[in-house]
Design brief:
398 residues; alpha/beta; Aspartate Aminotransferase, domain 1; Aspartate Aminotransferase, domain 2; 2 domains; four-stranded antiparallel sheet; 14 helices; 40% helix; 15% strand; globular; PyrdxlP-dep_Trfase_major; PyrdxlP-dep_Trfase_small
Amino acid sequence: MKYDFDKQIERRGTNSYKWDLPEEGVIPMWVADMDFETAPCIIEALKKRVEHGVFGYTLVPDSYYEAITNWFKRRHNWEIDRSWILYTSGVVPALTASLQALTMQGEKVLIQTPAYNCFFTSIKNCGCEVTETALKREGNSFVMDFDDFERKCADPKVTVFVLCNPHNPSGRVWKKEELLRINSICERNGVKIISDEIHCELIMPEYTFTPFASVSDECRDNSIILNSPSKSFNIAGLQIANIICSNQPLRRRIDRALNINEVCDVNPFGVIALQEAYNNGEDWLNELNQYLYDNYKALKDFFTEYLPKLEVIRLEGTYLVWIDISRIELTADEAAKKLLDNAKVKINSGTMYGRKEGFCYLRINIACTRANLMEGLKRMGRELCVYMEDDDEHGCPM
């Protein structure tokens, strides 16, 4: 590999939310950021900008829009008109502004559970009611329950559906035919779609990400797309994201919401980092995805050998692995607490993403060095191997 993803970076003492929030000695495998240095081209461009020494208000240049449109055309065969793009500080502020533009207080917003936890809070903060349609377990993956989805969309109070593509936390990368069916149901019922596509570049081999708005003209015109290089290039702290909306009247309303919420300005480092990521970071991203895939395979092999009662849900996209623990006598909350208190490993209980749908699941962040991954897994194995005792073929990792 050209890039060294095994390099250990000391993150404690840097005000890292991921590392400095847990106590000393805890391996953090929870919040969704990566432990890798970002692409060297981004680091060099930021160094050059710092050397200038003046950090005033930032104008977003034409080259910013060109970087976005060229990237999505080249990598995803999606033609984006520059005028469709609105920039902001993050995908969650983008979601809130889009909801404010699309909904009135008291209306319902539909999500698929388990769902990214900020969906719940953003919807409630906009004065709307959360309506849930649960994904269906099928083998070691999840599919959409289209019958229930259509029933929920038929409720006249449901005016918006928030899609997560790829899906966090199940790890699904939705297929084109699934996206077409979603839009068909939503259009019939007058439901607009907001698609959170922040994980769109983190795709496992053999899977292909399809931007929702690229599927058809109808999908494009009925949707608002939220994306950012923050997850893929580990630059979330630089706070840059984009809203892509082809519908001009709707786009004007979103722009107004961004200004009302005062999240319409961005910092110079985010603007530079996005351009470097999209213009010069593709080879780094490709190697990152291979490293993450190898981490995923290592995790699967570990669970097969030492924790066979815990089922690893197939990972198609993201670096967040969804684990089914229903065959042991612990709830997700109990397991997460035991792992933190006794094994000093911090992971997410599935109940964060829906109390019913996440009751027997854990979410593990594998975007770390192989050494940290294996140490975290060994700690987990030593704590949970007691629940494998009726299977004599499997022992505890040392």
